[in-house]
Input
Amino acid sequence: MNKIIIVFAILIISAVAVSLSVIDQFAVAAPQTKIQFTKTLGSFDDPGIGQEGFQFALLLPANQNSLYHGSITYTSSVPVEIIVLHDLDKQDIKGQATWSVDGNTIYGISIIGPPAKADSLDFTGAALGFRSKVPFTVTASVDGWIRGEPKQIAVQKIEPKQQSFTLPKPHVPVSIPMHYGFFAGGPVSYIITDSSNKTLGDKITGKQNWSVEFSPRLAKISSSAQSTVYTFTNGIKGEGLHGYQNEVFSSSPAQPDSYSPLHSLVTVSWKQGQKAQVLNSAEAILKAEKESRIKLVKTNVVINMPHILWPGGQMQLRNSTSITDESSFDKGQVLSISNETKKVTFVAHRGWGPDGRTTYYIITDATPMGPANLLGVPNVPKLANALSNSIISEMYQFKNGIRGPGPLGYQASVLSSTLEEGSYMPVCRVSIVEWNDPIYAGILETVSDINNKKSEKMITVQLARPLSSDHIVNCPIIEPPS
Output
């Protein structure tokens, strides 16, 4: 027998044991047992004969010699129909709308419509579910009773079919302008994604024609998590932030112990009467200051400036430039680097913000070394120092449950940060979400969803600590692609 038919038959006819975690403890001998719970479900292909093309989610599985009745309230990601199944003898099939996965166990089917994204209604039947023509997630609350004497049926133990859910465009290419600077006398190519100073960020946005996001919280990040960048306010004309020579960096990813993409901005001004020249290293700048030729001013501005190319190295390129819904997070985050167009193309990943709104982010740096190497980005141990003042964001990655385009092969990540002014922080600490019993897994789209399921003891949330170190990623959020 086809595996999906067997698996779904198990879900349909499995006894009360399948739903014990969401239904009050059954007293098997009682004529009625109270049921009251809330559950989030993800849809899958409807296995019913003749139901091809429908997505289905089963809320109340059938139990032999029993009947459900009560009320249901639900919200869904798309309009759905309510499906109620009824016990039906084979001699009563004629003229009836039916539903069956194997042609032997047959149910009468009632479709309660029209489709809606939210509703409340009363029901009576042997089983209850939802369906639509497109994939969906639905959260439903049931308040009712199961009537009769449910009997547990001995069935062959077969591993349930893994449910999956893929968002539209889970991975997309995004081209970002590159800037040029210096490190230790050599050339550096870098991008600018975020700024703690809105005025400067808006100025760079206009100059590069690509949004630099405002993140005031960057200015509060520990100095031990930062590197230094020098920007010139006068002297030799050039393509620097202020229209003069290109910026100079104090480190690059080739110096993992000292490099950070989070750069504290120091302005460099040539003193009156001094002849300006191009300074292409931090050492040359400090020497010129010691000679009283320039003035250095440490600002309170922090800019997210991940390096793309640096002396002796560059960000890892993916083996393939094509992106599919099944594209993984490993083997590199960069599709191409072009010095001709002065652009780098990243893979942007889709996730959910804290309130469930769609967000896209790129990954430019990470720590510790194991995850960084797997992602194909520079290992930046200094990012771990950002934990000292507890202002970084959270990224929730899913270890099991619903298969999908997330970093670990399951649903997309949920981020605690948004681009809303004042709250955005591009640096995230990673936590792992694991369903205690994956059979009850559903799609979680908000931080509240995660906290609620955690309080219900349906999931476990733990800090990711590969190699006994906190897992931190620099994951700038970008404007959603059109």
About this structure: The longest helix spans residues 3-13. The radius of gyration is 28 Å. The longest strand covers residues 64-87.
